[in-house]
Amino acid sequence: MTSVARLAAQANAEWCDTFCRTHGVPGQFADDCWWSPERTPPLYPDAVTLAPDVDAADLLARIEAGAGCSVKDSFATLDLAAHGFRPLIQAEWLVSEHEHGRAAQRWSVIETADQLAEWEAAWGEAAEPGFFRPGLLLDQAVAFLGRYDDDGVLRAGAIANRCRGAAGVSNLFAADGDLESAWQAAAATAHARWPSVLVVGYDSGPSLQAARRAGFESVGDLTIWAA
Questions:
Q1: The CATH number of the domain where 193 resides is what?
Q2: Do 115 and 143 share a domain, yes or no?
Q3: Tens digit of pLDDT for each residue in 47-94?
Q4: Residue 211 neighbours by CB under 8 Å, 6+ apart
Q5: How far is C-alpha 73 from the chain's CA centre?
Q6: Which of 92, 115, 126, 153 has the most CB atoms around it within 10 Å of its CB?
């Protein structure tokens, strides 16, 4: 399970890097972590660990570790309290190896800037419009997924990103509250776009429980620390 958690952490770090670069904030990769020497956009971490034995002081020396900083401790092995951080989110890495068939029939890949703006508004967590830049739609390793109702209104969605051996699912939402179906459909749509890969992600709380009901398995703990 540790190897799957590493794969999930890698997929998530690659998505963070891709997203941050669209905001002019390039990150860097090492064997043990991804990090950005500049402060990342809201909701995105300044570092993601890729191995359980990262040295905390060495990691924090690479980033702007002051107020507003966050670190995704992918294996819940760091103790950053002594460095002025507090645990913000306790979550679990998830994996699905199953294809969910007809669950994805009403889901599709977002293709235009107007659709992306609609997706972002339905997601509802952006601080300001244009949080997700249209250039992401040109990246063949990224797919914004959405479900439209019969009236053409976007009701659910997720982001999928492809890395070696896996497709990461993040930013999942469902306006009707049916997160279980959203997880099933997001996994099916990611599988259809990139066959023969594991679908991975992470979550906590009710959405984590919904993912488990949808057939995902927990493969490890993670902690998001905030300064």
A1: 3.40.630.30
A2: yes
A3: 999 999 999 999 999 999 999 999 999 999 999 999 999 999 999 999
A4: 94, 179, 180, 183, 201, 203
A5: 14
A6: 92
